Each structure stands twice: as structure tokens, then as C-alpha cells.
Amino acid sequence: MSEISVNNKRIAKNTLYLYFRHISVLLVGLYTSRVILQTLGVTDYGIYEAVGGVVGFLGFINGALAGGASRFITYAIGKGDEKETERTFTTTLTIHIVLGILLAIIMEVAGIWMIYNKFLFPADRLDSAVWALHFSVLTMAIGVSQVPYSACLQAHERFDITAYVAIADIVLRLLVAILIQYFGSDKLIFFALLLCLQNVGIMMFYRWFCSSRYKEAKFKLSIDKKIFRSIATFSTWGLIYNFVYTLNQQGTTILFGWFFLPPVLAAKAISVKVNSMTTQFIGQFRAAANPQIVMTYAQANYGEFKRLILMSAKYSFFIMWIMTLPICLLTTPLLNLWLGEVPEYTVIFVQLIMIDSLFWLFDVSFYQGIIATGNVKKNTIYTCILNFMRFPIAYILFSSGFSPVSSFIISIIFGACIGLILKPYLLRQLINFPWKDFIHIYISCLGVALISAIVPYCMTYIVNVNNISGFCIVGFLSVLSSAITIFYLGIEKTHKEKITAIIINKLKK
């Protein structure tokens, strides 16, 4: 069996595990989010998201080192060097434990100052916001120390375990949502406490599982200076990159808290939640493909390396489009069905963030190829220059009285420039990609999006999407039109023949 076929089967198998996890997570998560929003109320929900923005802001440091941990552990396993793998794991674990403690101290100080001096919170909710901050910081510190174990599981491609843990995680969140309805005099504080306890339980399981099965995953605090320097060099640029990314994500959330009331923060949080639930589908596919991309580069199999990058980008777009089209056409009835009470701006926020994610997919797909080479300097410099501009532009627009919608529009413009132009340019310099390969992918994706949208979009003017029959008709046509268009216009002939053969065999049985 060819190496390409083996890699394809491994990616497909891992993707199935991850989709099984995500479908379960999605179904329970939809109900959980509704219960939490209705129980906490729009104001407390917005407060919790603002506090989360503060806690997540300094997460850029952890994000940079997490990328380094995953890359170096996977690379060491790909080389088959057990001793190097063990030293790499021990070094990353020590770094993350120290980092978790330092970040907790910084976030406590910064968070309390912002709650009392910057955020537009009701006066009678300030003390509750502080307690929510304390528990959120503790949850964050636990998550930071957990990164090496998650990277270990991903490197060993144990996506079945992460699938089961994710299901347990969402079931526990559902339990939290139920408990806060009946217990706790202050539901915001009780909610933050229960989430913290939930994360402690998951952390303990991850550590037990990894340490009992993988030699390298032993709890030992030590630092290999050579590996530390390699991770530090790699992560220095990642640190800058993640700082700018976090500035645009969590920093924008903080700006929303400064300029707008909690209900607008709640609307932004809901849009991010919707986007997160859909992009996690892509994350499952990408998480299955990423280790193969790194390993093929480590093995100097550059032809397969290029093929995996391009195919992962295109199929990520197709998977996302199947969800994006019906969500954008049915945003209002979907939100009413899901939440009951829909905060102002939520509909337009959801539609714009879904469009933004389509460009983001090209960014992360091509960036994985850059990560595999280890040469991230130019990517960090150029990407940061463009991304850094978003935050001050949003601040200027908000200060001038512009709508919060303006920040989403700015994000789409910059996201398109980075994903479609900058990342391909950098990959061409590193791996000698021809531009025609990228253009072919763009034309294929654009053609699928435009053609598949015609029928369901026209149908929204014929039927009433706010009643059950119109909703189902438009939703069904959106998925069917996307699937048919992808099959005939987006998939390569060889893949199309394999899919057809599988369907025929199934029908014969």
C-alpha cells in the first residue's frame, strides 16, 4: 500500500473519531449554552465573557509555547528518538507549570483593576465579577499546565481518547448548567466555581492516562537546555504572533467591555460560540491532518507534504461552507430556536464572523506548513504588522461612535489579505510552491460557494424561513446544493471515483 494511501486512511480514521466527539459535543453544547444564558441572564453572561477576555488576553504566552510543545514533541516522535521525546516532554511540562503560576499572578492584578476602573458593569455585580475572575484565573492556570499532556496525545494520534474526554467535558458542562438553576445564591460565582472543578477533574484524567501509557509523559521537573533554547527560539516568534492574535481576539472583547454595555458583550460572545462550534468541525479534520504534515516534512517527503497542505486547505473550506451557507441564510430563526432571547446585534455578528472564518481557514492551513519547517520568523513579522493594525483601528472606530459591527468588517478585510495573499507568499519562499496551485484552490472554493448559494438564497424570497416548513426547505437545499456542487466541481476525479465506488458497493449490499 502506498504511503499516500496509508496517510489518507490514518487521517480519515482520526477524523472520524474527532467528528464523533464533536457531533456529541455540539448537540449537548447547544442546549447547555441556552440554559446558561437563560439562567445567568444577558448581563451576567456578558460579565463572565468580559472577565474571560481579561483572563484569555495573556493566554498568548501559553498559546505560543503550546504550539512549540506540540511541534517539538511530534517532531521527536516522528524521528523515533525516545530519549529526545522524553526530554522534550519534561522540558515543556516544567515551562508550562512555571508559566501558569506567573500568568495567574499577572491576571489577578490586571483583572481586578479593569473590573473596578474600566468595565461598564452594574455596581451591584462588581464583587461577583471579582470572584468569577478568581475562579477563571485558576481554571486558566490548570489549563496551561495541561498543554504538554494534550500535545502528547495529539502527537501519538490518540484522538479516540480526546473524543471521549470531550464528550465527558460537555456532559459535565451540562450538569453545571443544570445545577446553577437550582443552587447558589449568586449564580455567576457558582457557575465559575463549578467550571473550575470540572477542569481539575479532566486535568487529573489526562495526566493519569498519559503517564500510564507513554514513557515520556512522566511527571518530572527538569529542563534540557538545548531543547529549551530550540523551543524558546521557535516560540519567540510564536509569542509575538500570538500576542497580536490575542490582541485582536481577547483585546477586542475588552474594548467591547469599555465602550458597550454587557448585552452587546453577550451578543459578541454568542457569535463567537456559534463560530467556535462550527470551526471545531474543521479543527477535527485539521487536528488529524497536522501531525502528518509535520511528519512528512521531518521525513523529507516534500511532494506529499505539499499535497497534504493544499488538500487540507481546500477540504477545510468545503466542510466549513456546508455549515456556513445554511447558518447565514437562517441566522434569525436558528438563534430564536436556540436561545429564545436573542441580544441585539447577535444576528449580524454571527453572519460576519462566519464569513471571516472562511478566510481564516486558508490562514491556518498554510500556516501549518510554515510551522512544520520551523522557519516562522518572516510569517510572524508580516502577519503581526497586518494583524496589529486591527486593534487600534477598532479603538479609533469605537471612540468615534461607530457601531460594534465595524470591528467584524475590519477583521474580514485583514483576514482575507493574510489568508489568501500573505501565507501563500511565505510558503512559496520556504517550499517553492507555484502560485498556480494556490489559484486553483481559490477558484475551486469560490466556484463552489457562488454556485451552491444560488438556489437556497433565492428560496429565502419564496418561503418564510421563520416557520418550520420554510426553515426546513432552505436548510435542506443549502446542504444538498453545497454537497452536490462540491462533488461535481470541487473534488478531484480520483477521489470522486472512490466515493462513487463506495456508494455503489453500499447500495448493492
* Beta-strand percent range: under 5%
Categorize the overall geometry.
Answer: globular
What low-confidence regions span 5 or more consecutive residues with pLDDT below 50?
none
Mean pLDDT across every amino acid position: 80
Biggest sheet descriptor: none
Helix content: over 70%
N-to-C SSE series? HHHHHHHHHHHHHHHHH
Derived structural class: mainly alpha
Distance between the termini: 26 Å
Enumerate how many helices there are, as a single number: 17
Number of strands: 0
Query: What does the radius of gyration come to?
Result: 23 Å
Task: Summarize the entry for a quick read.
The protein is built from 17 helices and no strands. With 509 residues, it is mainly alpha-helical.
Task: Give structural notes.
With 509 residues, this protein is an all-alpha fold. The protein is 87% helix and 0% strand. It has 17 helices and no strands. Helix 1 packs antiparallel against helix 8. The longest helix is centred in the N-terminal third of the chain and has 55 residues, at 3-57. It is globular, with a radius of gyration of 23 Å.
